[in-house]
Amino acid sequence: MSGGWTQLGVVFAVAGDRDWSRSHAQAPSAIVLGDRIRVYYGTRNSENRSRTGFFEVDRADPTRLLHDHDRPVIDLGKPGCHDEDGVIASQIIVLGDEMRMYYGGVSRGGHVPYRMSVGLATSHDGGLTFERVFEGPVVDRTPLEPYMTMAPNILIEAGRWTMWYGSGTGWVEVDGKFEPTYQIKLAHSDDGLHWHQTNHACIPRLHPLEANTRPSVLRTAEGYEMWFCYRSSRDYRDGAGSYRIGHATSTDGRDWVRQPDPEGLQPTGSGWNSVTMAYPSVVEADGRRIIFHNGDGFGQTGVGCAIQEIRS
Fold it and tell me: What are phi and psi of 297, to 5 degrees?
């Protein structure tokens, strides 16, 4: 059993003095590496195109910044590819001497602002640089999922790979502008390269205009726990419909029961996360859970963290 979360505030924000990183530390993706926690994030240049960087914090004290990497770990995709306008890490998996990065690839749209799909890159230098395994995506639009895919989170159990990810369910016109809706869905693989997308929706929506995405899943004694974020399609840019962090549980990883929002992970009403809590990434270390997340502005105000003690 676990109690509520204690927010520790901002642990990292970009300085804006690098050509490839003028604003945002968006969608943090955390991994425990020895005595530190490395957090990959998406950051934007002056053209609003995203690359992935990382910072590292002390595992014992995640408010203590140890390293701010000064260059992106992967560049934009080739013109016309699925990731020509953005590469935003979502999950890092260590397989022996190899690290795999599953990421959201961004390409600008026409009638709608953009589309996203899931790409894969690997590293053999400890995650300092990554090379694409394929120029194209590994999880993308299908006949049953015609809009986009994003924000993958993966567990490997007994040789079976399971991915939870955001899947586009449509675009709705709000005040003359198209806004995306999406829902967390499920895919399986035998090797992490070739995926079977089930089109199974994991998290029931509270209303038709809800968008839920960015799952972060942990295995527990009872089954699985998921933290995710959800918003309305109206007034969600730091308004009344802004992102919140949700919570769900499952016995099998397929069918999920939505739980009350986690205690302690609400917006604070002032400061960097006054109205928004978004893009959770949860890790376990030393008898506690640590969640990295964004606040207002989709990462403009930086990355914060909160901790939760695990009670036996």
Answer: 75, 20
At 65, list the tokens.
């910044």
Which pLDDT belongs to residue 305? 98
* pLDDT at 1 > cutoff 60: no
pLDDT number for residue 311: 75
Express each pLDDT in 139-159 by its tens digit: 999 999 999 999 999 999 999
Distance of CA 68 to the CA centre of its chain: 20
Burial class of residue 208, CB neighbours in 10 A (0-12, 13-18, 19+): exposed
**Residue 56 and residue 29: Cα distance in Å, rounded?**
11
pTM of the model: 0.97
Reported confidence tier of residue 10, pLDDT bands at 50, 70, 90: very high
Q: What does the DSSP assignment read for 31-62? A: EEETTEEEEEEEEE-TTS-EEEEEEEEESS-T
* Residue 209: burial class (beta carbons within 10 Å; 0-12, 13-18, 19+): middle
State how far the alpha carbon of 226 is from the alpha carbons of 165, 167, 187, 234, 237, in Å.
12, 16, 16, 25, 24
C-alpha to C-alpha distances, 285 to 37, 162, 235, nearest whole angstrom: 9, 22, 36
Q: Residue 196 to residues 76, 104, 117, 212, 228: CA-CA distances in angstroms?
A: 26, 18, 15, 21, 22
Where do we find the tokens 């140890």?
A: 66
**Residue-range domains of the chain with CATH:** 6-309 (2.115.10.20)
